[in-house]
Write a structure and sequence with these properties.
The complex is a heterodimer.
Chain A (H helix, E strand, L loop, with lengths): L21 H11 L3 E5 L6 E2 L15 E5 L2 E10 L12 E8 L6 E5 L12 E6 L12 E6 L15
Chain B lengths: L9 E8 L11 H14 L10 E5 L2 H4 L4 H4 L12 E4 L3 H13 L5 E9 L5 H4 L16 H14 L5 H14 L14 H4 L4 E3 L2 E2 L8 E10 H7 L4 E10 L13 H9 L9 E3 L5 H11 L6 E2 L14 H14 L5 E8 L5 E8 L2
Parallel strand pairs in B: 2-3, 2-4, 9-10, 9-11
Antiparallel strand pairs in B: 1-7, 1-8, 4-7, 5-6, 8-12, 11-12
The chains are: A mainly beta, B alpha/beta.
């Protein structure tokens, strides 16, 4: 009797064309100009960046465009100590949720130019962009965020965005 | 639960669909859905806050975006938290879940929505992933080839000719001229269509559905709530869903026993119907469904143009229910049947009977 087959290979590969959508396209184009572009909900007034075209709370289109500044607050973070294949940054490094001033949605960013053990919730940070000629329609246009030296933000200002 | 008939009267009270188009180039799923959800509510003067339950149908594989069904909820706005569910299937099957929820008395209203962008991926390869993963998927049979096997079996059984397929395609696309949402519509004779090349014999170009991007939504309401919302609800008097074996070789592809059983359970044969909206992506499949449902010559089949006029994956089935409900609500039909399918060669079938008050 022959050995039973216990493993078989069935490789699968699918290609897709990704559509960012109208709102995210505005955001991505903003990055090519060194700008953070968000959108405001006409109903609740919240500002989403990156915008997805709708207010997830109210379910209405967010049509008002809002330009946000370069500064924000670390709402929460983690220290990455685990090496993995394809890693481009030296460990340990900091991955943080950053709430830009005036925004109501935090997004993920790297924190650098500060020792890992000194990063904290409420730390004030600013975006460090790549040289202008390297700006493109990608979050990689922003090299990382770094402390901007301002006193820490009050917990109440970001407690909704952890 | 009284089987597929229900104890509680539940009706379709509103239906909306996006324009069904070949390729949605600029909008993402949320941006596609928002106007449709807005319209399905504004048709009857309700908001998301009036919905007791939400159920959606979509497939993440279509756009290659994990959890796209979760982000799609941004089109509705689910705060404060809502009772919500999702099926990785056509919206018609999401409607079945919502109907069950209303039967259980857990809600009086439900929003059902679905979206499908068939254009961003490789639909022919993608649909092979729903087949038997050991013996079939590694061969990558595309849906046209599988439908062609079924069509050839019909011809071999003496149940159809290629000219029958052309007649169905000609009629469907001519009827679609009156449907502003339809994608493929024209007035061309069956004789003219017979000059098309084969894509996979015996199926010529005209017997195939288009590749479509689109979205659709329906609001269901129970009992007095339905009567309060609209003057003429389209009551669902029976709905049932049956599935056949995964093994294509074990099926008689020239008949659809799952459709026949679903129709019996839904009470289709108890009275005549005047309109049938059938989800037959390939022209040949309409013949199988007509027979399984026992439809006579007097029934108007796919006055909307059917899936040959627009076939957005995960959407075309719910549109059949919406179109049948609109026919009932507008007085064009006293009693209509809607059908939705899923899987290769009509593997899964849902039958829904709708009646005027």
């Amino acid at each position: 009797m022959t050995d039973p087959v216990s493993i078989m290979d069935s490789p699968i590969h699918l290609d897709y064309q990704f559509t960012a959508g109208l709102a995210q396209s505005r955001f991505l184009k903003g990055l090519t100009e060194g700008r953070f572009l968000g959108q405001r909900c006409p109903k609740c007034g919240k500002v989403y960046v990156p915008p997805r075209g709708s207010c997830p709370t109210d379910g209405v289109p967010t049509t008002d465009e809002v330009e946000l500044g370069n500064t924000g607050t670390v709402t929460t973070y983690c220290v990455v100590n685990v090496p993995f294949q394809g890693q481009s940054i030296e460990i340990p490094y900091i991955c943080a949720q950053i709430l830009l001033d005036g925004a109501n949605l935090a997004f993920m960013g790297l924190i650098q130019e500060v020792p890992a053990d000194q990063v904290r919730m409420g730390m004030r940070v600013e975006a460090v962009w790549l040289p202008r000629e390297q700006w493109g329609p990608t979050m990689a246009s922003v090299k990382y965020f770094r402390p901007n030296g301002e006193p820490d933000a009050d917990y109440d200002t970001y407690k909704e965005y952890l | 639960m009284a089987g597929a008939r229900g104890r509680r009267p539940v009706a379709v009270v509103s239906f909306a669909q996006s324009p069904q188009i070949r390729r949605e180039d600029h909008r993402n799923e949320v941006e596609m859905l928002m106007p449709v959800v807005g319209e399905v509510f504004s048709n009857i003067g309700v908001t998301k806050d009036d919905m007791g339950f939400i159920c959606s149908g979509s497939a993440d594989y279509l756009v290659g975006a994990p959890f796209s069904f979760v982000t799609a909820l941004d089109a509705v706005g689910v705060w404060p938290p809502r009772r919500e569910s999702h099926v990785e299937m056509d919206g018609a099957f999401a409607l079945y879940e919502a109907w069950t929820m209303l039967q259980a008395g857990d809600a009086d209203t439900a929003l059902v929505y679905c979206f499908g962008r068939s254009s961003p991926g490789q639909l022919d390869k993608l649909l092979a992933l729903q087949l038997d993963p050991y013996y079939l998927t590694p061969l990558w049979p595309d849906p046209v080839a599988l439908a062609a096997l079924q069509a050839q079996a019909l011809i071999d059984a003496g149940k159809a000719t290629e000219a029958d397929f052309a007649e169905i395609a000609a009629r469907s696309r001519r009827d679609a001229l009156a449907n502003p949402a339809a994608q493929v519509k024209h007035d061309r004779s069956a004789d003219e269509l017979m000059k098309d090349d084969y894509v996979v014999a015996p199926l010529r170009r005209h017997a195939l559905p288009p590749i479509t991007d689109g979205a659709a939504a329906i609001v269901l309401a129970a009992g007095d709530r339905a009567r309060d919302l609209v003057e003429r609800p389209a009551w669902i008097t029976g709905i049932d869903h049956r599935i056949e074996t995964h093994a294509l070789g074990a099926r008689d592809l020239t008949t659809s026993s799952s459709t026949r059983i679903a129709a019996e359970q839904a009470g289709l044969g108890e009275a005549p119907v005047d309109v049938a909206e059938l989800h037959a992506p390939f022209a040949s499949q309409e013949l199988i469904l007509r027979e399984a449902l026992g439809l006579g010559e007097g029934v108007s089949v796919n006055p909307s143009g059917g899936a040959l006029a627009a076939n957005a994956m995960m959407v075309a089935g719910l549109i059949r229910i919406g179109e049948a409900a609109n026919a009932v609500r507008a007085g064009r039909s006293r009693r209509a049947v809607a059908h939705a399918t899923s899987g290769p060669c009509l593997q899964q079938n849902l039958v829904c009977v709708l009646e005027a008050p």
